[in-house]
Amino acid sequence: MFTEEKSNTGRQLELDVARGLAIFFMILVHVQLYFSKEEVISSWFGKIIDFVGGLPAAPMFMFLLGVGVNYTKHEEPKVFFKRGLMLLAGGYILNFLRGFLPYLINYFISRDLSFYYGALVQLFNVDIFQFAGLAMIFFGLLKYLREDYLTITICAIAFALSNIFLSDINIDNFWASLFIGLIWGASEYSYFPFLTWIFYPLTGYLFGCLLIRCQDKRKFYIRAAIASALFFFGGIFTFNWSIGLQSGLNTDIAYYHHFFTDNITFTAFVILEVSLISFIMPYIPKGLIYLMTRWSMNATPIYFIHWILIGWTALIIAGDSLSYLSFIILSIVIIVISNLGAEFYRKFTEGSSEVSKRVFFKRSKK
């Protein structure tokens, strides 16, 4: 089924659809989290939104980040280091734009000190950009050291196990906890600590190592679906029902600071979802595949833009105030504006790149 050399190097549309769906689910759950009434959140409708914004969203993003490392054209360690530092800085820039400024404006309007302290907290939140940056830097280190698959597997398991022992260690100092929160969930403001979430990019990388060398994708995904279904349902039954361990789906903090058992079941769900998407690809309308592919390609700017929209919309629309219809309308508006903004950004950067190339070649000729 596999070749020693990379053979399946084209664009994997099932991965684009999976990432596009993750973007859609992510925006829905974030809008619900900020603006929906409690009656909406606690309804069957809200619980469905909460679920699809959980397993098929952030774990999928991070798993596909690892898969994508196999498909990148630039494998030099310095490229990963540079990309990681840019993502890390971008995370704090996003914190400044989406959280710090709106909270600061609320403080100046109301003179309520809680908004002032909230602005400082928002500035140093450990969100998915910060984690993605650390993950890319770690991949750069793996590339530099030329580590093999066994070492990467050991790293994934070792980090997940160490997270179990460190997760109960909370730091009393507020500022120290924010920075240590980059590594483990030392505070409630650390939403994507490294030790909790690095399991997904590393297992995604190992999955991608097989996918890119696969000669029979159908057979590969059939086996992946069977194995992942066994691990997911078996894990839920064993860990959460039989043993009674807390699931990462129980609460928000449990989701962001989940443990090794959830790493296993969440990863299995992600692989099962990708496998199922690959089976139904022939039946998905081409227009929808194209849209999901565009969203997949624009994932970073869409993420950036939608959070800024939510952060500033919170100045106008009160939290926990939207009914079903108003929630749906606001979600559609944010999805459309985020998509259009990301497309504009892509075309602008591509145009700037072309201009820079022309100037460079003109100067070279002179």
Q: Which outline best applies? A: globular
**Sheet with most strands:** none
Mean pLDDT across the residues is 91
C-alpha-based Rg, rounded:
21 Å
Distance separating the two termini: 53 Å
Helix-residue proportion:
over 70%
Class from secondary-structure proportions: mainly alpha
- Low-confidence stretches are none
Order of helices and strands: HHHHHHHHHHHHHHHHH
- How many beta strands in the DSSP annotation? 0
Query: How many helices does DSSP assign?
Result: 17
- Strand fraction equals under 5%
Q: Can you walk through the features of this model?
A:
This protein is an all-alpha fold. The chain is 75% helix and 0% strand. It has 17 helices and no strands. It has helices at 13-35, 38-41, 44-52, 58-71, 77-110, 113-123, 128-145, 149-166, 174-180, 194-197, 199-211, 217-242, 252-256, 260-280, 286-297, 299-313, 324-365. Helix 1 packs across helix 3 and helix 1 (13-35) runs parallel beside helix 16 (299-313). The longest helix is centred in the C-terminal third of the chain and has 42 residues, at 324-365. The protein is globular.
Keywords:
366 residues; mainly alpha; 17 helices; globular
